[in-house]
Amino acid sequence: MKPFHSYQNPSLAVDLVVFGYSKQNLSVLLLNRKEAPFKDRWVLPGAFLQMEERFKDTCSRVLKTKLGMDDVYLEQLFSFDEPDRDPRGRAISVAHYALVNPARVAIAAGSMANDVSWFNINELPALGFDHDSMFQQALQRLRSKITYFPVGFELLDDLFTMPELHELYECILDTTIDRRNFRRKILDSEYIINTGKKREGSQNRHPDLYKFNKKLKKNSFQINF
Amino acid sequence: MKPFHSYQNPSLAVDLVVFGYSKQNLSVLLLNRKEAPFKDRWVLPGAFLQMEERFKDTCSRVLKTKLGMDDVYLEQLFSFDEPDRDPRGRAISVAHYALVNPARVAIAAGSMANDVSWFNINELPALGFDHDSMFQQALQRLRSKITYFPVGFELLDDLFTMPELHELYECILDTTIDRRNFRRKILDSEYIINTGKKREGSQNRHPDLYKFNKKLKKNSFQINF
DNA sequence: TATCTTTGCGTCAAATTAACACAAAGATTA
DNA sequence: TAATCTTTGTGTTAATTTGACGCAAAGATA
What we know:
homodimer, alpha+beta, Nucleoside Triphosphate Pyrophosphohydrolase, Arc Repressor Mutant, subunit A, seven-stranded mixed beta sheet, about 25% helix, elongated, DNA-binding
């Protein structure tokens, strides 16, 4: 058997659409490039795959070293292959998206290099490379996924209230959803559990605190909003 | 700017899950390997990416040269990255799935090398490499896709009857669907058009012939069976 | 104690779905 | 020619789900 790596191959990279949710805002983490190509433009964080790495390893490396994040929900999105997508030469990129609770990476955020920044998804600058298209695809996937898989918990604290979950869905799906119908559908799906505790401190009635049901039997559902 | 290809990169390949539907049978096209590794085992057709090619170009090349097929519905599935997935060395594979009407590639099928064969999806041999997993993922994707996108037409003739479409759905989804409810939902979705013609020759009542509505406004729907 | 806002729970009409009945069409046969 | 058999097209109905609300309880403040 002849080993492969004697042949010439395209470069292989991963790029990351890191979503964060905080204060009724869905944001994406962008990096300001300091070198050509696309110098001074905002781009998605990414890195080239090292010979021994899986995609997730490379993603974790980027999340850890560039952004100071650990243990992040990660999903492969799509591989981008346009021959001219990188002016430096042929490069394939396997896009992923990540869901992050910014509160949990607050320390990292504080120590983040000043060339890294959160942008509200409705106020994104034009991105370098083909990263606009990656972002669009990631957003579409997130919107679709959240209607059939309990993925929102990655963006919230371990304990959360019904109004918080409701606002998250409205924000991600960019619609209004009747509060009471939302409650009914979510509860019917059985993917959250009422802890019996209540969130104190608010001015009005204290809402119940829920947690994610990790023992959910069915691993998918279908909710139409 | 330093060009990339001076670095060492993993090999990059595409592999293809080619689905064909014929006589109430959903099948996959497999290739019998003539060389190590996995000599004499059945595997998915695939090829290494050439430096100038897009994934779809490589797929088309495989479909054309190995299988004699043109103009095939093709969709990127997932990229497989386990470091040991190929004993010859580090190789990434971007899996795709294709939908084919075997009747349209009949000539090709006749001239097909004898190491290529259709297998009913319920009677697959154990495949080489990580191709079992690729196949499973492709089947799952097809089953999901067919419930919200008119993808079945790629597997049927231009004109088809309601019972034919019904059988296709039952076969792919591996369930029974009430014939009359199926008809109503499909017609409500407006993605097929009654041509007014009828399929002659059958013993009993001649069913109407339908065609795909290419001017469909909404580009997706949701049908639960 | 009255008021204000938020949260939890319930109601009801409208829409959708699942299950099923029945008649029309076409070939075969008595 | 009429009876029979099977398949296909159409319609009906009850059950379920959904969307659009009403209302009271909880908690803070005036």
